[in-house]
Amino acid sequence: MTTLLQLDSSPLGAASASRALTAAIVQTLKTTGQVDTVVHRDLAADPIAHLDGAVLSAMRPVEGVTPPESVKGELALNDKLIAELFAADVIVIGAPMYNFSIPTQLKAWIDRIAQAGRTFRYTATGPEGLVTGKRAIIASSRGGMYAGAAFELALDHQEAYLKGVLGFIGITDVQIIRAEGLGMGPEARQKAMDAAIAQTQTLAA
């Protein structure tokens, strides 16, 4: 049994380009028999609260100190999110570029699952990712054109950031399905989406 975790973070619903891409990716993987079960977490429709001081302190426990009752629900949510991540064989992440980075909804998920001692650990030779043996596919959507541009390194805190985080926790098999130039007019948007949807078909190989 192969399980896929689908994460959507755009709040645009049916108008979202990244949601169209995640749907196409999941459909290809399902119809080609690469995944059996899909767990869908909609980070916009069911948002995860950003960390506050109480939750962050409870996530870094001190011996002999019991977390207050007020944060136990948040800690249980952390456990659930991490369990979903470890249970998945494939992770599909819908990640539009917002102001050169990722949506705040997706960042909130990352802040919950990136935990020392659980998804990574520090060793004498450096950090070691603990979420291994998994495949990730990023459905990337962008209003402008960045890939291969001279300013990509300075402005891409979306794809590069996600690859960095995933690699840090142990997921190094990462593929990107990208649609960019979506804000450059209807014709450019349609061309970019057609190319990206076509690219999802390569996942059938």
Q: DSSP helix count? A: 7
Within the CATH hierarchy, at the fold level, what is the topology? Rossmann fold
Radius of gyration: 18 Å
CATH C-level category: Alpha Beta
N-end to C-end Cα span: 19 Å
Overall 3D shape: globular
What is the fold's blueprint, element by element?
Blueprint: E1 3-8, H1 17-31, E2 37-42, H2 53-59, H3 72-87, E3 90-96, H4 104-113, E4 120-123, E5 126-129, E6 135-141, H5 152-155, H6 159-168, E7 173-179, H7 186-200
Parallel strand pairs: 1-2, 1-3, 3-6, 6-7
Antiparallel strand pairs: 4-5
Helix pairs in contact: 1-7
Fill in the keyword field for this structure.
five-stranded parallel sheet, Rossmann fold, globular, 205 residues, two-stranded antiparallel ribbon, alpha/beta
Describe the structure.
The protein has helices spanning 17-31, 53-59, 72-87, 104-113, 152-155, 159-168, 186-200; strands spanning 3-8, 37-42, 90-96, 120-123, 126-129, 135-141, 173-179. It is of the alpha/beta class. It has a single domain (3-204), classed as 3-Layer(aba) Sandwich (Rossmann fold), CATH 3.40.50.360. Helix 1 (17-31) links the parallel strand 1 (3-8) and strand 2 (37-42). The chain is globular, with a radius of gyration of 18 Å. The mean pLDDT is 95.
